[in-house]
């Protein structure tokens, strides 16, 4: 092995706003025309010249080539039709009509994404979107995502506290888990969609949101464990992406302790926990080992140091292209920063081997590309001695415990 096959488990793409029109069901196109005329994009990076990285296939492949990235798992980026903001960050819909329109927008995005992935089928695994505000439609769209060849699977939205729909641990969602299991799709839970939306500006509220947003995303892990979802669907694969990786070992320890208390006969806490949490066939950490993975976006050295506790075979590195906090345009430097000194076989698994298994990438089909662009084993093994002065990625942030 001279070069690594790098597959980013966290990239983002979406159509230019008006290009979604052709993917909408015809009944919604006139309304889309009126909506689009008055829409003001809330994201600065989607109004700049480089915004085309989200939808320009040739530009995107050229960028990934320069970064040494052969394959990518694609989450949404641009704003789908009828959404007030990006679908990952949008506040809940407030009416049945708004639910209907957003569903139309997400279906348009999924159709666009299937076409976009077909332009580089060996290289791209798209993640289709659903909403939870209509369970029947969500189930139908899961099946459609599988049929359309979006082998990245399904993006499971978060449920913020106080939302008008049940939390993910509710039995209400049992048909959804069954549908995902039956369709054989990967269930992906991306950071940023499960917590309350900041409402009072960009001061302290946003600082609190940034601090808490990953924790809200982590909740899906114990919701799916303690509700028995992973126990009842042992073939279901769940991926936790762009929400850090260092939280996993301590969380699994804590969940194992809690599950042990819930299962102890006669204990007071077991009475409160209920029969499902107290009758799991495995420890929570064993469900993690059997069914779960982490999309370790811009993975930092301090997280890599915990790889044995997380599971080397559970980690899938991600670049977060084309976002500011992602590793581009210094992905090669980021890989050296995080993975120098790590055994090559482990690096190969975390940089692409694990993602290839989870998302069905054909490594043999990617081999000619890897031979041309892949970072060499020797290159990644060389420690990074100086961080590029204009690097914006959080991968290069120093360990705060050591620098505070």
UniProtKB/TrEMBL annotation:
GO cellular component assignments? cytoplasm
Which sequence ranges are marked TM in the entry?
A: none
Q: Does the keyword Hydrolase apply?
A: yes
Listed SUPFAM superfamilies: Metallo-dependent hydrolases
Top-level lineage group: Bacteria
What does the record list as GO biological process?
A: secondary metabolic process
Q: What is this protein called?
A: Amidohydrolase
Q: Which organism is it from?
A: Mycolicibacter sinensis (strain JDM601) (Mycobacterium sinense)
Keywords per UniProt: Hydrolase, Lyase
